[in-house]
Amino acid sequence: xxxxxxxxxxxxxxxxSQNSREFKLNLSExxxxxxxxxxxxxxxxxxxxxxRVEESSAGARSARAERNQKKEAKEHKKRNRVKARKNKRxxxxxxxxxxxxxxxxxxxxxxxxxxxxxxxxxxxxxVEVTIPENVTQEQLTDIxxxxxxxxxxxxxxxxxxxxxxxxYFEPGTYTIKTNYDYKQLVNTLQSGPDLGEEITVMFREGIxxxxxxxxxxxxxxHTADEILEACNSSNYDSYSDVAAITxxxxxxxxxxxxxxxxxxxxxxxxxVESILDRFLxxxxxxLTDEMRDDIAKSGYTTDQIITLASIIQAxxxxxxxxxxxxxxxxxxxxxxxxxxxxxxxxDSTVYYPYKTANDAPEGFVSxxxxxxxxxxxxxxxxxxxxxxxxxxxxxxxxxxxxxxxxFCHDSNGKAYYASTMDDHLMNMAEAGxx
Length: 434
Fold this sequence. Notes:
Largest sheet: 2 strands, antiparallel
Strand content: 5-15%
């Protein structure tokens, strides 16, 4: 062995390959044949070795791929678990935040409703509200909310639903404080409005709507303009007789003729609606079922009878005269054309809605004039009493007016009736009208 550690063979050493060859030469023929077979087998094995290496390599790659897939799947699951834990924390936080937010909102809402129920946090002031007849829960809630008497309509509606009978609310105008709790509010509205002092007013038969409105104003019961405006509204169409009127646009005042003249007790705080309701209710009660049946049999409508009654009221001298004037007017309406009479020619209609020429504006021409228009005017010219209505339904059948087409009165109210124009002219001369 040299200094560098390498080992060398002796010079006289025989090469291994040569010894091997000499060994082969010393073999017998059978051994040699056997050795050839071994070489063939070795050759065959040598030829198959690359295929097995390739198969081994493919198997290794497949194993590695499978291991990589498993490892990747494992990593994916791990990432998903981490992500799920993170999402779970986010979801829990979001859910908690939502629960807290909803809880705070609900708590604030309930506290607001509770305060409104108790009248807390509302300004201490007064408001005026008007409650109509047969008010519903929805109407009442809307009225109070719009007037700022309540702030939470849904809570008040719920309160009324479970604690309040709606039929006990009294119609009228109320002055209430805005800091009332719900119970105080309901008790006030069910106790009835403060109507103030009682006022008694007498309305004579034949009074017109204009005169009636002026009389109400004189007694401190609203202004005449407020009354007249209401008389042309549709607020009273719940009354069957008013609802039956079909020519509203042709009339000066829709309610003329239906505000029954009588003595009434009002209160200084009565609404316009409640005042006119009393007139209209009285009118409906005065017309009995028998009277209505007889009107239907007469061939006239109720409105035509009331229109006729208003003219009778304005033209007749007294109750007895009403039935005879009615007979003359019926004759003119029903058979006047046979005598060339087509108009009623009643002075009381010439200046309506005014009483006289002095009341009317200069140059005024009434569309109700029975000198210029055939038949009855568009509506009543005043509010007739019961006697005039009865006379319109049941005209006189006495001899002096059975065929009469004319009438007149002297200054003392004495009545004259005639069947012809000549007789009528003589009556007018006797009455001092010519």
